[in-house]
Amino acid sequence: MILWVRGNHSDKISTEQDIESGQKASPSIGDASYENASQDQIKSNEDELQTSIYTLGAGTSSDLIGVGVFTHVYNLGEGRVRKVPASDPDNLDLAIKSIRREGDIYEHLGDHPRVIKCLAKGDLFVDLEFAPHGHIEDYLKSHQDTSDNCRIGFAQEIIEAVVFIHSKGIVHSDLAARQFLVDGALHVQLSDFGFSSFGDGDVLGFENSPHHLPRDIDGDMPSTVQSDLFALGSTLYEVITGKPPYEGKSDDAIAQLYSNGSFPNVTGIVCGHIIMGCWQGSFMSAAEVLEDFLVAF
Q: pTM score, two decimals?
């Protein structure tokens, strides 16, 4: 999850090649493993990592545009943004693991029109193509007059993105409108794979409560295709209605409603039957969701 900073306000939304930057080579993630290290070695490694992270991020650009659980995002200009680990020493191992995983997933996915383009990656950074309209949640808040036809177009491209990543064995584990960026031509591109897995259940985080399928997150497969499809339903609900499911209710209340099989009323809204199908587990794959969507629209 990333907190995207826009001017003087912010909105919640909770990207192998080395960049030729002339920077000193960064320590590898192995250097951040402290299990058998002395306290002096730990402090030395932490200081070196913090310096490298600063150099790659704030030392390169003062334009901080996003703050996440594990990452900070800087606008480098010329159509490029950079994600680096958040420099919180309590979570430094996880932050570095998240950045490396995200870069590896972008490399695995390759170029695709429904995924934000990765321009470069390293042990401590991922460079992504800049999306001038930000994420779709923010875009719809500032364009409340967006037509149903435009929202339907967004919805189709969101589903297409999930179809693609699932076809490549990726479980996102944090699907929401805030994870989909809007490019200059108003096309949608999925981003933020720091929590994701290659389908083996090893995830680093989970969806927020309005997008979270109630499940045993401590089990062998805490995030699956089915949990992504549930979150996809909530994401489509956001795009069509302009608000998340059960807006204003507490996390505990939402979790209880979902556990009881109680979902927001979608009668009469565009894509309502598809949204409900995602929530109720009626689809076995994102490809089935897309098939039903294309029949309807």
A: 0.84
